[in-house]
Amino acid sequence: MSIRQLSLTDFRNLKSVTLDFDPLFNLVCGNNGSGKTSLFEAIFVLCQGHSFRTHLLKQCIRHDKNGFLLFGRFDGFKAGLSKTDQKFEIKIDGEKIKRRSELVRRSPINIVNSASFELIEGSPGIRRRFLDWCLFHVEHEYAEIWLQFQHALRQRNRLLKTSRDLTQLDYWDQALIEPSLKLSRMRKKYVLDLEQTVTENLESIIFGITPGFEYYQGWAQDVDLMEAMKNTRNKDLKAGFTSIGIHRDNIRLTSSSRPVTEILSRGQSKRLCLALLLAVLKIVSRSSENRIILLIDDLHSELDRESQNQVYQQLLKMDLQLFVSNVETSLPVGLGAKEVKMFHVEHGTIKPRIFS
Ligand SMILES: Nc1ncnc2c1ncn2[C@@H]1O[C@H](COP(=O)(O)OP(=O)(O)OP(=O)(O)O)[C@@H](O)[C@H]1O
Ligand SMILES: [Mg+2]
């Protein structure tokens, strides 16, 4: 799935505009503070219904305005999104949708930016979200099971805080088990798949690193989940929340069997992050009929020329719609003489430019 046209109004610092994109490769140039990341954010919000920069979409409303509007033409459908202080609405082909996942499923999008490098050193939640993006697009049951899990977890936490009704607690313990075990199995399987994809297909990115990825369930390793929940019930009643479960899962990353944070240099750690990202893109594009949109924001300040070159060589082998930002009006190393549509951003005004 590629995005062919975007119209935006009152989004961040950007002046209202309609842009026609290339289905394969778009380059966005402009000085610091001109609005490149804001354009990427607009595309991302239109595809995901949330931002990669903030949990508060209202921060994306242009200062002194009441709301923003985004409208996009994708291959095969149109999407519109409006946000004001009071209201948030998403429409697909003119019809209001109830669940954000209806939009997200149609337009897989991911971003590589400086925050991507937190995948290794950041909290387990970052790795869980990273893996779950893959599960969402590959396993069709995932969204439904995830909702069941969230619902049961919320109910259990509410009971732990507000009542001591142990019969109800038994019921919600039981309701948590099935979706938890299904999600846990999926995560375990895709961690293995990721490890295999990285080691077999991405040697050029991970040279000098011998990676190992291990799924760690968020409860005692050799104990069945029901038993573990019984064992921690008193602790949970005191704390007022569920302290174990798949919401505490982790993926441990190693190189030569040591924790990566102990052994890898900063540059190696960035290359391993990129290898993980590329592997996830490969896995999703293998099984999704929709082309993935990939935003690459300011990668060039993070990587040396050889690593950039390797990353772009890999990206060019995949069926993606790429958006790449660059401060300079030049193609990043590794993209060679690729055909590209270029946009220039200056103080929030975006104009298409002939690339020469
Ligand atoms: N809600 C908003 N309304 C108006 N302007 C905003 C809003 N939010 C951010 N800005 C401004 O938008 C400008 C562009 O920011 P953006 O992050 O898009 O720049 P950029 O081109 O990506 O810069 P860099 O190359 O430094 O990453 C900034 O000057 C910022 O202060
Ligand atoms: Mg930026």
Percent helix: 40-55%
Strand pairing plus helix content: what structural class? alpha/beta
CATH fold topology of the domain at 1-108 and 290-356: Rossmann fold
Give the CA-CA distance, first to last residue.
Answer: 27 Å
Spell out the helices and strands N to C: EEEHEEEEHEHHHHHEHEEHHEHEEE
**Top-tier CATH class of the domain at 1-108 and 290-356:** Alpha Beta
Q: Can you count the helices?
A: 11
Q: Architecture of the domain at 1-108 and 290-356, according to CATH? A: 3-Layer(aba) Sandwich
Bound molecules: adenosine-5'-triphosphate, magnesium ion
Binned strand content: 15-25%
How are the strands of the biggest sheet laid out side by side? 2-1-4-5-6-7
Shape: globular
Uncertain stretches of 5 or more adjacent residues:
none
Care to count the β-strands? 15
CATH superfamily annotation of the domain at 1-108 and 290-356: P-loop containing nucleotide triphosphate hydrolases
Gyration radius (Cα, Å) is 22 Å
Mean pLDDT: 93
* Major pleated sheet: 6 strands, antiparallel
